[in-house]
Write a structure and sequence with these properties.
By secondary structure, the chain is α/β, with parallel strands linked by helices. The protein has helices at 31-34, 37-40, 49-52, 63-69, 85-93, 109-119, 135-147, 210-214, 274-279; strands spanning 4-9, 55-59, 75-78, 97-100, 122-128, 152-156, 160-172, 179-188, 191-196, 200-202, 227-231, 236-241, 247-252, 262-263, 284-295.
Length: 296
């Protein structure tokens, strides 16, 4: 039997509500913030869930994206207070299996979505929109995927500013004869892959996952990734080869910076042997013990 895969769409949120003991909005947002969920996730409009994914799950306000694409999700979870009546009515009239929960609960909507995937015997899941906004929420999202029993998990973050500007010469200012410079904020989209004990990942464009193949997340392929980080939430033993800073069965302490901002040899700006550069040495990350997050 083929391994089943799932696509989980969450509301792309910057704020949330809820206090201690209320995890209803751990990966969601207030009603006001979720009104524009479909617009916030518009950069993923080219994504075609079928046939790349066997199951689709709308997490609360993430249903707005499915409505905008006229795609009925297989499952929908949340309290749906953030959805407008038209979208909610469409969802209720559809064939989607809806699991409505109270906003007063001790688990997040994302955790519920992952639980549903486990019940459906899903092996791999790609999550879009869960990362962003408040740090406490992002930490809980990472905790949820770290605890999940799914063997393969990938989080795709929406594009955001890189926090720096690229100065571009756009001509001369009339009158002064001086060059005019225009600041252009760089943007990037980050992907997080969960690597569990015994798993490895190689940056190779010929081995793209469904999300990489069916959606142009970047203008370049996986082989063009330059910088990556390997971070563990609870500690892990990892090996990294084909990088500027290789590791051999090295123990990563929880949230250690040892694996932060590594570089692939074939894309490194540093001087490297010509034979290495020409062969485009593949970069491979292997987890021997524990669980680690690969961010690129």
């Amino acid at each position: 039997m083929n391994a089943l895969s799932a696509l989980i769409i969450c509301p792309l949120a910057a704020t949330s509500v809820g206090g201690a003991g209320n995890a209803g909005s751990t990966d969601g947002a207030s009603s006001a913030a979720n009104i524009d969920d479909a617009n916030n996730l518009a950069e993923f409009d080219q994504l075609s869930p079928s046939p790349a994914f066997d199951f689709t799950v709308a997490v609360d306000g993430g249903a707005a994206w499915f409505y905008a694409q006229d795609i009925v999700p297989h499952f929908a979870v949340g309290d749906f207070d953030s959805l407008d009546r038209k979208t909610l009515k469409w969802l209720e009239a559809s064939s989607a299996k809806i699991k409505r929960v109270s906003s007063d609960k001790e688990f997040s909507d994302l955790e519920l979505a992952l639980e549903i995937c486990e019940e459906q015997n899903v092996c791999s899941a790609t999550i879009i929109g869960a990362i962003g906004g408040r740090l406490d929420h992002q930490l809980c999202v990472l905790g949820a995927v770290n605890r999940s029993a799914l063997s393969e998990l990938t989080l795709v973050c929406a594009s955001q500013s890189a926090g720096k500007s690229q100065v571009q010469n756009v001509g001369k200012d009339e009158g002064s004869g001086q060059n005019k410079n225009q600041n252009q904020s760089e943007s990037y989209r980050q992907t997080i892959r969960v690597l569990r004990e015994g798993q490895d990942f190689t940056f190779d464009s010929s081995k793209s996952s469904p999300i990489d193949g069916s959606l142009a997340l970047d203008s370049s392929s996986l082989v063009d990734v330059k910088t990556f980080s390997v971070i563990s939430l609870q500690g892990a033993v990892v090996s990294i080869s084909g990088s500027r800073w290789d590791l051999d069965h090295k123990k990563l302490e929880p949230l250690s910076s040892l694996g932060l901002s590594n570089e692939r040899w074939s894309n490194s700006a540093t001087s490297i042997p010509a034979t290495t550069a020409n062969s485009a040495t593949p970069t491979t990350i292997t987890v021997h013990e524990g669980t680690a997050l690969l961010l690129y």
